[in-house]
Structure formats: structure tokens, C-alpha cells
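FORM 7B - TANDEM STRUCTURE REPORT

SECTION 1: FIRST PROTEIN
SEQUENCE AND C-ALPHA CELLS:
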Amino acid sequence: MNKSLKINFIQLLLVTVPFILTAQEMGFEEYNPTSTLVVPVHEIKRAKYPFIDVHSHQRSMEKEDLKRLVSDMDALNEGIMINLSGGSGERLEKSTVNIKETYPSRFAVFANVDFDGVGNSGWAEKAVAQLEEDVKNGAKGLKVFKSLGLRNMDSDGNRLAVDDPRLDPIWAKCGELGIPVLIHSADPKSFWDKMDADNERWLELKTHPRRKRSDTDPAPWQQIIDEQHRMFKKHPNTKFINAHMGWYANNLELLGNLLDEIPNMNVGIAAVIAELGRQPKNAREFFIKYQDRILFGKDSWRPEEFPTYFRVLETDDEYFPYYKKYHAFWAMYGLNLPDKVLRKVYYQNALNLIPGLDKSLFPKN
């Protein structure tokens, strides 16, 4: 090999070898191959039936914001959006006034309770009075955030349990007022498990380290979940919507047993479509059996992500991607739900649970 060719060969190695080594050493975070599988594809940008999103969060409900939201909602075939971040008092009242003056049929808000001060004299009476006022001003339900059971402390600095008896007047009042309680307790159990090769939420915990929990931060997962279920049973006259399918979308047999055991508990599918989409046969049977107890919801407001929900619920497509690898690195499959079940999940069950929604926006049959 002459000197010129040798120099060119060395230069080529200097360029290509680092690339080869980089490809070989690529971490799981970067590995995201395009599937070569060729199967029928049914992209669905718009839901088959108008739907009610019972699990949305909007920081602002100014009139201009509502106008922008309606445009996106119409494109998705979203009939009504339930804003769970309604707040309380003046903030909630302002939102309901804006709704009445712009799109009175398209939006509803749930009130939120401030759990600060539990244990102080008169806290329950004040909280109940505020809830009554919020419902009078247009709130259609109560949303309880996961901070209850995780971060909320009582006046003595102790963790406030979900089933703390000092909160009973709140749940009882919701039953008396005929409004549902949509409650999020804990997080996926994997957040409490060891962060090792066996944890299928490893990537999520690596990219979102603040989500990691332990038995002492703040309590064992099962303890928090059991607190929630005891509270449901203690208030049979109150209707509950268990957010994120109560974190049992990965164990539908157990969730079904709980639904049988707790007749006033319903479940929302927000943020757990990835669990349902990886077990299409099992999930389809579950939806058919419990078709009167399941409600549609999305959680984060990103219109471009809704089609994955539609595709899982409506089609029998195979092996299509989820939109967040860190959340679910596996593929989705369609449940191909019957129309009767779709209508219940999309809007009928919500209309039956949430008072005062405009039924004229939805098909009669």
C-alpha cells in the first residue's frame, strides 16, 4: 500500500470507527427502531362518537382560551371537556362565568378541596361549606389530587391518609349533593419497586427521578391503595371515579374483583391506555363485562395524542407505537370494542354520573 492510500485508509478509519462504536454502545434510551412489520393500518384522527373527557387539566379558562380549546375539541369529536383543576371560591366562579358566557355546553369544572389545616378546629365545617358554595356556583364534581396520601400533612405534621375519618364529612357531602368524586391515589406500583433490570418503568424513573418512591417515602404503595378502597366502602352513597383505573390496569382480574366488591366505584382510563393496548383480548373482555363502569379520559391535554386512544378502543390494528417510549416501550393492539360499549365509555357513563351535562350533544341511541 503506497503512502497516499495508507493515509486515506487511516482517515477513513478515524471517521467510521467512532460511528460504529457509538452505534454498538447506544443506550436503551436512544434505541427506538422503526418496525418493519407490514400489517393493516387504520389511523383514526376523530373519535367514532362524540366523547366526554372526564380527566382534563386546564390552568386557565379565560374566554380566549376556551375558544382555542373548542377548535381542537371539534377536530377530535370531543363533546365536553371536564376541567378537574377548577380550584375553589373566586377562581372557580370566574371559570364557570366564562363558560356560561361562551360555550355553556362544552365545558364543566370540578372543585378542589384545600386539605391544609386538617385537624384544626372547624376545618371540616369550613371545607364542607366551601364545597357547597362551589357546587352552587357551577362545579359538577370534586377532584382529589394524589397529594392526598402522598404529600398532604395534618396540623400535627403527620401524613394525611386517604381514609382519615376527619375527611368523612367531605365524602358524605358529595353523596348528599349528588356529585361524583374523581380521585387519584398513589402512582404506579413500579415507582415503589427497586429500580433495577426487572422494573419495566425503569426508563421513566431514570428520566423522571422525582417519581421514585419507597415504603418510607411516604408510605407503602399497598397501604395507600387500601386506604382509598376503605374510604369508598365507608361511603356507599357517594359515587367515586377511580382515576387511572386505580393503577390496576395491569391486573384486570383484580380490578374486576374490586368493582364487584365496591359497587359505587367507577374507573377512568386516563394515562393507562398503554396498559390496555398490550393485552387486547383480556382488556376487551373486561370492557364488555364492566361497560357501565368505565369512563373515557386522557389527562394531559395534547390533542395529537388522542388518536392512540381512539385506535386502541375502536380498531383491531396490531403492533402500533405508543407516543411516549419512556412511559411504555411496548407496542399497542386494538380492542375493537362493540359500538354499544364505545358509546358507554365515550359519553353515556359520564352523562349518568356527572349532573347537569348537556345530553343533546350526544346521540340518543
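SECTION 2: SECOND PROTEIN
SEQUENCE AND C-ALPHA CELLS:
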Amino acid sequence: MKSAYLDHAATTPMLPEAIEAMTAQLGQVGNASSLHATGRRVRQVVEESRETIAAALGARPSEVVFTAGGTEADNLAVKGLYWARRARGATRILISAIEHHAMLDPAHWLSDRQGATVELLDVDEFGRVHPQTLRDAIERDPDSVALVSVMWANNEVGTIQPVRVLAAIARDHGIPFHTDAVQAVGQIPVVFADSGVDALTLSGHKVGGPMGVGALLLARGVDPVPVLHGGGQERDVRSGTLDAPAVAGLAMAVQTAVARRIETSARMIELRDDLIRRVRQTVPDVILNGDPVNRLPGNAHFSFPGCEGDALLMLLDAKGVECSTGSACSAGVAQPSHVLLAMGADAVRARGSLRFSLGHTSTMADVDRLTEVLGQVVERARRAGLS
């Protein structure tokens, strides 16, 4: 039985072009920081990759800072920008209540140990941050705000935020604005120069590139305090020998995904809408979470009344359908999704949710497989919940 992979938001298969670009470098030797010919060859690979990413995302090459992935980029953004502005008395961190834990956890760490005050920006029932919510939070005391961070598109429910409007509000007050665009790049238009944001996170394995590599786009004049200290390889804000093969794979993945975005997104929207329609037919009382219109092309997130999300996931897995829950597991106990709770869902609904996410390899056969088995799986999960 061939499985239906519906968890592309967690990681998506590498694009053939990215595999080729990466493997072409794996057999080569050299450190991009070395001054000899071999080092210069590797440096050329890195710099050409930097230029490729910049061109694909509307940035300058000097604004591309390579990292080991999205989590490191988020940490560099929130910690580095906070430390850079704390000296002038700015200690408030404004972030949306539905951020990824790669943003929430370092922000709360700064609150616990570094004197920060973290303020979570409320969202509506669709997971949207309203511009007035940010404006009100800033205007209470603009000089005290160290940074604002609102993700471009939510990783769980797929809601797309009005990033350009939010960034403009922060800019009006001279406050740096960061966005985690890990889920957005390659699915929706992302142009760094036009967005108005000061820092933007992207990750390789979400766009068809390798794991363990990502980037933080930093506008000119935005200089966070380093989190890693050492050689200062990346604009003196990120130290560490660069993984040139992974960087080459990342660049090719970003270039390819952006070039094919319109075609791929149109196909995913068609599959997603069919998936939503058929899931609703199969389970009439299912609840679609997130913005019903302004959402990621590949995202369909549901709450299934009377079911536990973990039970549904395992039952679907046994039937050859791979997806994810929005919950985090701590000490073996499922916790309700903080995203759904922030959107106003109760804990029972939040625990009974699943995310189905599509990608560049998704086909109608994946949707067919899900809808073939979903009805019996939901029925079994509900019986288990009553026993």
C-alpha cells in the first residue's frame, strides 16, 4: 500500500534540481574562509548561492545571512535585535500569539533571563493579527518596544498575515520588524524589498532544499548582536564554517520553488479545495480552521469533534495516510495547540485537530486515499473516545 504523504509543512521532499546542486559539491573539499584557490572556489559557490537567493526573493546579496536552519535564524532575529536595542531602554517584545515555538521560546527565555517583557498580540478567530492590535500595543509606549515579530503565514492553520501593513506600522515608529516566512517562501509572493520588513527567516527543507540550512535576510543597517561568536563569517552576526553543499542546495531550491510558484500553487489550491470539500462531505460536523480564503495554497487544518488528534493521526497512519497534529507532546501528554487556543477554540477542540499539508509532489491520489479511509477512522476514534 502506497502511503499518502500529507505533511509537507513539516518537511517536503527535496527538488531534483536541489539534490543535483548539493551533490555536485559534496565531493569537493574546501573551506569558504580559506584564502587559497580551493577555498576561493568554495567561496564562489557560497556567494553565487547568496546572489541566487537574493534575486529570487527581491533582496540584496549582502542581506542574505546563512544559518543552520529556521530555528537558528529566528533565534538570531529575536535575541540579536533585542540585545541590540536593550541598551537604549527598549525591552518590550511584541509577537503574535500564534508564532512557531522557534520564536516563542527564545522570546520567553529573554523574558525569564534577560529582562525582556514579552507581549503576545491577539489574533481573531481566523488567526489574523489586526493592524490596529499592533498599533495599540506600540502606541502605549513606542520607545520601549525592542522589536515586533509576526510570521508571514502560520505553520498550523495556514492563515496569511497582512505583513506589509504590520511592518509599515512598526517602521513608522522606528521599530525593527521580523517575520518568520518559513511557510510562505515558494507558496505565496515574498519580495523582501517590497515587504517593508527588516528581517526575514527562511528554511531549506520547507522549500524543497536540504535540512540543516536556512537564512535570515537582514536589511542594510539592521545589525543584531550575534548569538554565535567565533569567526564572524556571515556579516559578523553569524559565526561558523558554512556548509557549502547545503547552501548550494538551498539556493537552487529557493530559485526553483519561486520560479514555479504560480504553477505549483495553482495545482495545490485545486487539490486543497477538493480535499476540504470531500472531508466536509465525509465528516459533516468537521470544522475548518484558519482563514477560509487568505490561507496557504497547501494547507487544510480541521478540528474533528469527539476525536483526539493523536488517535486520529495514528489510525490514519495505519491506513497509509501521513499528516500531523497541531499539538505538542510533553512528557507523553498531548497539549492543546497554542495556535487554536489563541484563536478562541477550547482545549477539547484544539486537541482534536489535524493538519493536512500539500506540496510539489502531491497528487489527487493522496486526496483519494485520505477520503477513502477518513470516515471509518473518525468513527473508530469517536468510539474510542466514548469507551
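SECTION 3: OBSERVATIONS ON SECOND PROTEIN
The chain is about 45% helix and 15% strand.
The longest helix spans residues 364-386.

SECTION 4: SIGNATURE
Preparer initials: ____
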